[in-house]
Amino acid sequence: MLRRLYDWTMNLAAHPHAIWWLAGLTAAESIFFPIPPDILIIPMILAAREKTWRIVAIVTTASVVGGAIGYGIGYFFYEGVGKPIIEFYGYGAKYDVFQSWYQEFGAWIVGAGGFTPIPYKVITIASGVAQLDIVTFMVVSFLSRGARFLIVAALLWKFGEPIRNFIEARLGLLTGLFFGLLLAGFLAVKLLA
Questions:
Q1: Distance CA 188, CA 190 (A)
Q2: First vs last Cα of the chain: how many Å apart?
Q3: Do 22 and 59 meet the contact criterion of CB atoms below 8 Å apart?
Q4: pLDDT tens for each residue of 137-191
């Protein structure tokens, strides 16, 4: 089943409108969607290496736009919209401690959330609730998200076919590792908050 899903994703990645689906998924991931865009970025670059830098530009832009929407939810609609999202992910109880970190480490928190497996959606909403300076939020989001996507894309672009062969030969192991890192990111936020 995993092989069929991988093959389907590779075929979808080569579709002419795949980049816009990726942009929508990336924006949604910055607000509420639990699956990181890397799942589509990897096969899209492997399917069309000549589009690598365009993919990075679109994904980075979509992520920052989604981040700005998440920030707005936290800033304007925390009680009605943001709080239920935070509680859905199980971060409500320790949220006050996490929010207080913004007074001292706001830009660093955004940078870590944008670059690491820490769920960026939590960071975007928390930044709005804490009323972190919007310019700081946008600049750090652009730099951290852009760096994350650029590193992944550059490696795939440089090593293309060998990376594809490596992924295909170890698909089950890499999928488990990927979801383990994703889970570790959620747990890190939960434990640290």
A1: 5
A2: 37
A3: yes
A4: 999 999 999 998 988 888 888 887 787 677 666 656 666 676 676 667 666 656 6
Q: What is the pTM of this model?
A: 0.74
Ranges of H-type helices in the chain = 2-13, 18-29, 38-47, 52-77, 83-88, 95-115, 120-129, 134-169, 171-192
Taking the domains of the chain in order of start, what are their residue ranges? 2-192
pLDDT in tens, 80-133: 877 787 778 777 766 777 667 787 788 888 888 887 777 888 889 889 988 899
- The tokens for 140 are 């750090």
